[in-house]
Amino acid sequence: MKKHKGKIQMGIVIGVFSVIIIACLISIFSRMYTENKEKEEFRQLAEIVTEETTNTDNETETMKKPNLLKVSDSDDVFQTEQPVYYTTYYEPHSISELISMNSECFGWISIAGTNINYPVMHTPSNPQKYLNKNFYGEYSFSGTPFLDARCSSDSTNLIIYGHHMNNGTMFADLCNYTDYSYFTEHPIVVLETKDGAFAYSVFSVMKVKSDDWC
Q: Cβ atoms within 10 A of the Cβ of 213, count?
């Protein structure tokens, strides 16, 4: 009788654990499916707003390098009021079309050779609106990169937030910059806004926890 009762209890325990394991697997695969679906949605958006170029095989774009230092704060070697121009490769996007699709779009950020190729949103009155929303304002695990509410198009420092997704999307590739070879192979961040395309040189990387004070 005791053995029979013990078998029943063991069967119940196994059954409960089986249900828990199945539920966890369903949750994991469901999230993976959702994240990959969101990745595809961003790819399709990029395809819609990517502008055609005259030479798609070897297109060189001239972009203005922002002068982030004021002349009075710089050493003599950097003191110049003339904009610095140089060439780099990137796929131009129609920012006007993005803004027409969603007026809360600030621009487009990309780093050649990485997965970072996304719109950037800006909602000063609701700073974290796109933390878990896609470009169209629908709920999203991945969210959409967004500009800090304290920043504007006139700011000399632009803070852009984005998730680190386990499938390597969004800003996950930024963690690779702790590898010096990766750092040197992907030196330029391109930010396109209604004011033009700007190229930023990566000069320093810091990896911190979300609750660290920097």
A: 4
This prediction has a pTM of 0.73
Sign of the C-alpha dihedral computed for residues 161, 49, 68 and 70 taken in this order? negative
How far is Cα 37 from Cα 28, in angstroms, rounded to an integer?
14
DSSP for 42-107, written as a single string: HHHHHHHHBPP-S-SSS--EEEEEP--S-GGGS-GGG---SPEEEEE----B-HHHHHHH-TTEEE
Weakest-pLDDT range from 21-30, 99-108, 115-124, 198-207: 21-30
Long-range contacts of 6-13 (CB under 8 A, 24+ apart): none
Give the class (CATH, top level) of 43-201.
Answer: mainly beta
Residues in the chain: 214
**Interatomic CA distance for residues 164 and 116, integer angstroms:** 11
Q: Break the chain into its structural domains and give their ranges.
A: 43-201
Question: What is the predicted pLDDT for the residue at 91?
Answer: 85
